[in-house]
Automatic annotation (TrEMBL):
UniProt keyword list: Membrane, Transmembrane, Transmembrane helix
Entries under Pfam families matching the protein: DUF4212 (PF13937)
UniProt xrefs under InterPro entries: Na_symporter_ssu (IPR019886)
Keyword Ligase: no
Sodium symporter small subunit domain span: 8-84
Protein name as it appears in the record: Membrane protein
Organism this protein belongs to: Actibacterium pelagium
Ranges that cross the membrane: 20-40, 52-72
Length: 85
C-alpha cells in the first residue's frame, strides 16, 4: 500500500462499511425498537410483540452480528489492500 490512491480506496471502503453498519444498527435499535414499535405490535415473537423484542433482544443480537461481520469484512479489505497483520 505505497501510493496515495490505494490509501484513499482503503479508507473510503472502511468508512463506507462503518456507515452501513451504523445505519443498520440505528434502524434496528431505534427504528424497530422505538419508532416502528406500534406497527410491529401485532406480530408475536416469544410471547411478546416484535417491537418489544427488538427493543430488548433484537438490537443486541444485530449489534453482535454486525461486530462479527465488520471484523470479517475488514480482514478481507486488509488482505485486498495488502495491510493484513
Amino acid at each position: 500500500m505505497a501510493d496515495n490512491s490505494s490509501n484513499n480506496e482503503y479508507w473510503s471502503a472502511n468508512v463506507r462499511l462503518i456507515k452501513i453498519s451504523l445505519v443498520i444498527w440505528a434502524l434496528v435499535s431505534f427504528g424497530f425498537g422505538i419508532l416502528l414499535r406500534p406497527l410491529l405490535k401485532g406480530i408475536s415473537v416469544g410471547g411478546t410483540d416484535l417491537g418489544f423484542w427488538f427493543a430488548q433482544q433484537g438490537s443486541i443480537l444485530v449489534f453482535l452480528a454486525l461486530i462479527f461481520f465488520y471484523a470479517w469484512r475488514m480482514n478481507s479489505l486488509d488482505r485486498e489492500h495488502g495491510v493484513e497483520e
